[in-house]
Structure formats: C-alpha cells, structure tokens
Amino acid sequence: MVHSRKILSQPRRVALGIAIAALVLAGCSSSKSAASSSTSSAAASTTSSGASSAAAAPSSASGGGASSPAAPASSAGGGGAITSPVTLNILSPWSGTSPFAKPLSEVAAAFQAANPNVTVKINPVAVAQVAPVFESTTLAGDPADIIITNPIQDALKWVEQGATVPVSQYMTDWGLEGDLLPGAQADPSWKTDDGQFRGFPFQSFIWPTWYDKTALASVGVTTAPATADQQTALNTALKAKGSKPLYTVGGLDWSGENTFFQIVQTDVSDPDMLKASQTGNWGDYPGVLKGIQYFVSMRDAGMYSGASKGQTVDQMTADFYAQHAAGATLVSDFFAAAPASLQSNVILSGIPVPAGFVHTKPVVMAGYNSYGFMISKKASTNSAKLAAIEAFMKYIYQPAEVGKFVTEAAMPPALKATEDAATTNPMLLQVTSQAWLDSVDIVTPTEIPANVASNLTTVLAQAWVPGTSAQTILKSMEDAYKQ
Amino acid sequence: MTTEGVGRTSADAGVPRRRARTKRAAPTRSVLLFTGPALLWFVAFLILPLIAIFWLSTQSWDGILDTPHYIGLHNFRKLVGDTEFHAAVKNTAIQLAVELAIIIPAGFCFGYFLSLRRRGWGALTTIFFIPILISASARAVIFTGVFTSSGLLNGLLTKLGLISLTQPWLANSHTALYTVVAVDLWAAVGFNAVMTAGRLSGVSTELREAALIDGASQWQTMWRVYWPLVLPFTGVLVILHFLWVLIQSSQNVLLLTQGGPGHSSVTLGYLLYNKAFVTSALGYSQAIGVVLFGVGAIGVAVIFRLTKSRE
Fold first, then answer.
1. Residues B176, B170: contact at Cβ < 8 Å?
2. Quick one: closest CA in B to A134, which residue?
3. Chain B residues touching A468 at Cβ < 8 A
C-alpha cells in the first residue's frame, strides 16, 4: 500500500483523474453516437424518397422490422377494430383560454365514449412549447402519439429527422384525402420534398386587418381604408384628434413578421413572393423593395403605436382589445378569442394598397399551413396505437366534429364538408361572405425554409425600429438565408 | 536489559516509522474516500459539460433532433460578422458598466448606514432584502406594470404634468435596455447593502469613534476608513454581480423586452438562450457560451487581481 501510494505521485493522480474523466466522456460519447446513428438511420429511411416513405405506410409495412411502422389493425374499421386498451397521447398547442381547447376536449370525450378501449390524454402546452416539448420527449423515447402543430419552422424537419412519419398512405387508406379542400391538398408546407403529407391538415387561416368601428367613427369614417391615400387620411385624422394610433402590432414576433409580409405583398405577385421566400433572393423581385419602402413609409408616418416595435402578439391583442389602437392585422385564430363586444364592432379588410401596385384591392393573406395533426414515428411502429390514431383521425375529420371547431372556435376549416358549418361569429361570417371576398385580394403565405424561419423573424424585428431603411431591411432579409 | 528488551528496542526502531506512514496514509485515504464522490460529481457535472460547451461550439447542430456536424471555427467566424452579436456585446458592456458603477458604491453606502444601527435599521434591512425573495417572473409582472405604455411610470409622469416624457419604456430603443438595468438595480442594491452591512458588523466600532473624535465626517469615515477595510469583500461582491449580470440577468431581458425593439436590449446571456432554445442553433449558441465563459473568466481574474493588489 505504502509503495503504491508513493507511485501515485501528484502528476499521476492528475493523470488518473483525467483518465476517469475521459472514460466518463467516452461513455457519454458512445451513447451519444448511438443516439446520433439512430437518428441518422431514421432520417435516411425517410429521406430516400418514395420507396422508403412507402415503407412507412401501412400497406407496405408487412415486412418491417422492429423500427418499421406497423400496419393499422383495420384500414376500414375505425373504432371497432380496437380490442385492447390503448392510450392516445396528444400534444396540443390549445391550452388555457384558447377557444380551440374546448372543442378538442369535447371531441376527445366523444371519441372515448365511442371507443371504450381508447383513453385520450391531451397534453396542452403553449404554442411556442410544442416543438421543444415534442423534440425533447422524442429524444427521451417517449413522444406524444399525435402532435397538433402547423407546418412551420422545426416541424418542417420532423419527417426528415425521423421524428414523425409521412401520412399520405394513411390518408389514402383511411379514406381521408378526399375530405381536404383543394388548397389544403396542394399546400406545399404540408408536403415533403417527395410530395408526401407531413400530417393531416385540419385548419385553414385568413389574416385580415381589423378596424375598430368606434375608432373610425370618432373621425367620421365608416368604412375600412382600401387605398394608401385613404389610410393616410385616416391616420392624419386620428392624429389630429390626438386619440389613438392607427395600428398596433407585435413587432417582436411572428405577428409583426406576417404583417410586414402582407405589406410587402401589396406589390408582389404570389408566384414571385413564393420564389423569393423560398430562395431568399428578395432583391431579384423589384416589387419586394417597393413593398418594403411602402412599409417604411407607413412606419415613419407613425401609423403604428409607439409600443408596436417592442411588443409581442399577446401585448398587441391586449392593446387592440383595450381599444388603444384603431386597427390591427390579426389572424383568424383570434376571431373567437376577441371580446364579444369587439367581435361585432370590427370591420375586417386588408392592407390598403398604393396606386400602381400589383394588387388593386386591400391585401389579405390566407392559406392552409395552419394547425393539423402529425404522427410520431414511435406511434407509427405500434399497431395498437396506429389503430387508435386511425380511429381518431376518422372521427375528428367527420363534419359534425370539425363543425364544433367552426362553431366554438370560429375556425376556418381545411375540409370540404364543413365549409358551411354553422357559426355565429361575426368575423368568421364576414370573411366567408362572397361580398367580402370580392372586396379584397387574397394572397398566399410565404414559404420560408425551416432553417431560415427563426433568423428571418429576428432580423424583421429590427424593421419596426424607426430609422431602419428599406435597403437595410432588404439586405437583412437576404443575409438571414446565408447564416 | 534482556534480549526481549533488545529485540523490542530493535523492533521499536521500525514500528514508529510504519506508524508514522500509517498516520500519514490514513488522512489521505479518508480524504479520498470522502471527497471522491464530490470530485466525481464535479467532473461529471461541471468539467465534462464545460468540455462539451467547447466541443459543441465547433459543431453545426440545428435542433436537438439533428445530428451535429463538425465545422471547426465556423461558428466563431460567423460571430464576427453577426450584427446581433455585436449589439449584444455592446449592450452587455453598457449593462455591466452601469450596474457595477451603481450597485457597488450604492450598496456600500446603504450597507454602511445599516451598520450604524440607527433607529429602524431592522425594518430597513428587511425592506432591502425583500427584492431577493421575489421570483423573476413576479418581478417581471410588477415592472411590466410599471413600464408599459399605460403603466405606473407614465401615469405618474402624466399626473406631474410631464406628459412629454411619457413613452413605452419597454418598447423604446433608447430606454428598453435601461429598464432591464433598472430592474437589476432594484434587486441588487438592497442585497449588496445587506451583505456589506454584515461584513461591516465585524469591524470594531472604535475605528469609527476614533475617526469621528479626530474630526472626520461620517462621509469621510465611510470612504476613507471603512471602504479600504472592506475592499477585498467588495471585490467578492463585484465578482458575484459581474457574473450575475453576464449570465443570469438574461431572464429579465427575456421576461421584459425579449431583446427588443430590434436588437436594442439583446445581451450575450439572452442571445445564448435565444439561439439555443428559440432558433435551435445549438452549435452557434455554444460559441456564444464560449465567449461568455472567456469574458467571465478574464473578468473574474482582473477583478480578483485588482482587489488583491489593494488588500
């Protein structure tokens, strides 16, 4: 002992410490490597085009190994095929006071009653937490079976990363594809590079500009401004009265970003906007710079409240609901969330358009890359889970069930059968009337690559700060694609 | 003297040496035994994560489900050209300079006052300590109410007839960072005062009495007699606040301004969080982490040296 202690001199003890650290590190590293290789193989299996994607589909799952997605218990059956108890875990962005939370709970309860062997567990989280929660639970090996999300940012990578599975074959086998509106079927955000659906589209959206009738009436105006000149006149009148700013916006987040894009789109055609947003070559399309210049002119004319540049969508809605601004560009998700007194006191329109621009009527963005249902890879490998998912998707796609979301949450659906579902929401009634649709120019959403989306949101927050020139904004937008 | 005695004597000559070795060995073994688990914990949860930060900073890793790829120093080259990072460096420097310049002397002054134990010092100590007991989220709610457009501060200014000074403090590029600084100061000055008062309580009151008898004012006594005495302790407080501002205060940025408007209140700590958890640029975020580690280590060394040299 004495001898050995002498051998273990100070430098050797340090060396031993390093060796122990290296062993632990090696242990961590090897487990990480295993995890990485697992992820890689999963990604490879889903990115090698149609053949492997077909392998993820039920019709070709017969030869699958342990990690291959399982076939549903019954492609025709729905609930009747589930003979043993199974729990369906749903990760939902509809939490708290979201008007979508109630119809989801109702549908889940009704589905459970119709399928006694299935227990539906809804895990509601904040919208921004859906991706982090799903990704961390996927890494931990315990992801939700169904993820309610829109196909943006991180969710655009999940199929390729092997975290979720493409659902085209399921959609066909379960007889659900025909239920989608043509726009939802064609929406590129829901598709992988090889044309597979990333999930089941469920909701569409429309993004009008809201005008508070009371604020407009205070300066003798009864209609929403349709042209840039009318908008300027309204802004001047409001300022002269010294009451409130024309608009409020959440300049720090996606609400400001989408308002910005709608303003830019006043002078950009849909195909050009699509190409520019996909490639990041914004400067190649002259209308983009003109649109940005129009935005800068609106910003510098003080049309947006002083707080706009530093607030989020929550503060923006609070600002507008409290009638601190005359207008706001807000997505249809807020139709049912707005105070009842405001719902019937709002004129919906679009971004007013300057003379000589591509669009001649107020611009409103609308599309189908809104909420839908994605299926985790793990759930797809479990035949019992997959049978429950099949039953659930067939159930929630029924017109009566979608109708609950239309009625209670004022949701514009992505499904054919529920286009005419009953609603009493004054704003949803406005935007679905033909007269209203004729009064605006509907433009399609941008298609921003997943790895660029966050960068772009960050650089566009700067656009709302006075002094940021149109050229600077344009350059920042292009640079966001190079980072 | 017997053979046994001789033998014992002979044996005794060696026994003490063995015992001496055993006595030296026992503490070493027990030290290893008792500190071993802590050392392992230290290596596993402090040293290895630190190594991991450096390793991750050389990776392209866009989201935890992605596979990291080695890209050398690309993340650091990207930092050089990143305007948001430049803004974060500038804002962090401002935040550090303003906060340390106020917190340390103000904390010392208040701490000295508390150490005099004048009437009401107990209540004052409690009041000074209360901000530390309020969670960051609750603090953010309070100060959002203070600084928002229709908040307490603007209301007060309006009442005082200073409407021209009202503004959205959290959403103004010129004031957003300073609202974060103000919240930090609100919490830190009192804490610093209580800590300093605790240290001053260990200093003999005879020093003050002697200084006052010699004609020194309270102000002179405070700065010329007590300040040099507690300077090493103040150095520790400076290090703590320096690290807190550098790393921890990002929670106030997140809860109050989210770095906005634009990049006007982005700090290094917040930028690290944002890149890691919002934009999923994990490798890039760790490059910022390496910069923060470097700045922190150098800053602590400098502060320590400055303080030590005056000790």
1. yes
2. B65
3. 262
Whether the CB-CB separation of A390 and A78 falls below 8 Å is answered with yes
Closest residue, chain A, to B36 (C-alpha): A17
For A:302-331, CB contacts with B below 8 A are 305-312, 315, 319, 324
> How many whole angstroms separate alpha carbon A482 and alpha carbon B78?
10
φ/ψ of residue B114, rounded to 5: -60, -35
- DSSP H helices in A244-362: 254-264, 270-279, 286-300, 313-321, 340-343
A345: which DSSP letter?
A: T
- Bridge partner residues of B268 (DSSP): none
Question: Could you tell me the sign of the dihedral formed by the alpha carbons of B32, B34, B37, B38, in that order?
Answer: negative
| CB-CB contact of A101 with A92 (8 Å) | yes
Which of A21, A43, A454 is closest, CB to CB, to B43?
A: A21
A182-208 per-position pLDDT tens digit:
999 999 999 999 999 999 999 999 999
CA atoms within 13 Å, Cβ hemisphere of A407: 12
Residue found by looking up tokens 């003999």 in the block = B204
Nearest Cα neighbor of B270 from B233, B245, B297 is B245
| pLDDT tier at A25, thresholds 50, 70, 90 | very low
The answer to whether A66 faces chain B, any CB pair under 8 Å, is no
- B63: nearest CA partner in chain A: A154
ipTM of the complex, rounded to two decimals? 0.70
Nearest to A346 by CA among A325, A327, A373: A327
**In chain B, which residues have their Cβ closer than 8 Å to the Cβ of A20?**
40, 43
Nearest to A161 by CA among A177, A174, A143: A143
**What is the dihedral angle through the alpha carbons of B36, B41, B42, B45, rounded to the nearest 10 degrees?**
160
For residue B265, the 8-state DSSP code is T
**Dihedral (CA of B25, B26, B30, B31) sign:** negative
Task: For Cα atoms A308, A239, A472, give the angle at the middle one, nearest 5 degrees.
Answer: 40
- Cross-chain Cβ contact B168/A2 below 8 Å: no
Query: Could you read off the pLDDT tens digit of each residue along chain B, which spans 311 residues?
Result: 334 444 444 444 444 555 555 555 566 788 888 888 888 998 888 899 999 999 999 999 988 898 899 999 999 999 998 989 999 999 999 999 999 999 999 999 999 999 988 888 889 999 999 998 999 999 999 999 999 877 899 999 999 999 889 888 988 888 999 999 999 999 999 999 999 999 998 888 888 889 989 999 989 999 999 998 888 899 999 999 999 999 888 999 999 998 888 889 999 999 999 999 888 899 999 999 999 999 999 999 999 888 775 44
Q: Is the pLDDT of residue A399 over 80?
A: yes
Query: Using a CB-CB distance cutoff of 8 angstroms, which residues of chain B are in contact with residue A7?
Result: none
> Do B261 and A20 make contact, defined as CB atoms within 8 angstroms?
no
pTM passes above 0.90: no
Q: Is the dihedral of CA A260, A264, A269, A274 positive or negative?
A: negative
Percent over 70 (pLDDT), chain A: 82
List residues of chain B with CB under 8 Å from any CB of chain A: 21, 25, 28, 39-40, 43-44, 47-48, 51, 62-68, 78, 82, 84, 148-150, 167-168, 170-173, 176, 257-264, 274, 277-281
Of A17, A310, A324, the CB nearest to B170: A310
Q: How far apart are CA A389 and CA A405, in angstroms?
A: 19
Residue window 121-180, chain A: list those with CB within 8 Å of chain B.
Answer: 132, 135-136, 138-139, 154, 157-158, 161-163
